Amino acid sequence: MDKVTTVPRAKVIVNPVAGANKTYKKWPQLNRLLDHIGLSFDHQYTEGAGHAIELARDAASDGYRYLVAVGGDGTVNEVANGILNTGSAGDVSFGVISTGTGSDFARSAGIPMDSINACSVLTSVKRLVIDAGIVEYHKNGQKTQRYFVNAAGIGFDAAAVESTEKIPKYFGGTIPYLAGLLRTLIGYRNKSVVMDIDDRNQPAKILSMIVANGNYLGGGMHVAPDAMMDDSLLDVVVIGDVGKLDLLKSLPMIYKGTHGNHPKVSIEKAVKVFINTSERVLVHADGELLGEGPALFRLIPSALSLVV
Questions:
Q1: Which domains does the chain carry?
Q2: Across the 308 residues of the chain, what is the mean pLDDT of every consecutive 10-residue run?
Q3: What's the pTM value of the predicted model, to 2 decimals?
Q4: Of 77, 205, 263, 269, which alpha carbon lies 20 to 30 A from 89's?
């Protein structure tokens, strides 16, 4: 759903270490360009994990009605969480300049991948009202929750995120995730779970399950080809009991978005998914490792007003 509005003064939240620490060097040029295009804004650097949530929440609470995330998918996730953790989320516009290594949210949302071109979008008066998801999971023995805007999941892809976080991100796009995937492949074992998809119980042994709001994951893998960010539905991609050799052979299908034809892959739309298991399974959201299952994923319809 589109709506038209004016462009208020923005709070720009910059993660200087995004994109293998390159955003710090890019920011002066981006700052000048935002001035040149006439965007009225203040900016602030993040200082560590979780800081963008705090900055965004404080900015929205202080009256800013336009917040811009400059960084990778993790920064986008944190700023979105800051907005959604206030009572004024419906009144706040959300802009993105993607400077990270993966940029899956920008791909999914149709935001220019090039950060220079992304700046030119920020004075647009067009808004796309997108859905979000929320995942409840466990960390340090405590149940907690996190919003996600692109994709979340459990299993192999979460384990690959854990491995990817340990790899120096000298390259962008798929390369770091692919390296993490290959490292994870060596010791990973598929998990026995009970999936409850919109109150339908499905015991299964799975490699992975992705709950997607957007199309892309892992730096450009076309994981949920039919997902739409404004359809009030989440796309649930279940990769069943696939072996390691089969997974490697199927990677080209995942890049192309044709893996739905695989006999051990199912894709369906839902608004709520609960995963229960006695095994240890990791949970991720928007490219960030969160914690462990059991996990509940729910749709938050019409959650954010995205500048497009």
A1: 2-130 (3.40.50.10330), 132-302 (2.60.200.40)
A2: 66 94 94 96 96 97 96 97 93 96 93 92 95 97 97 91 69 66 83 96 95 94 96 98 91 93 97 96 94 97 96
A3: 0.91
A4: 269
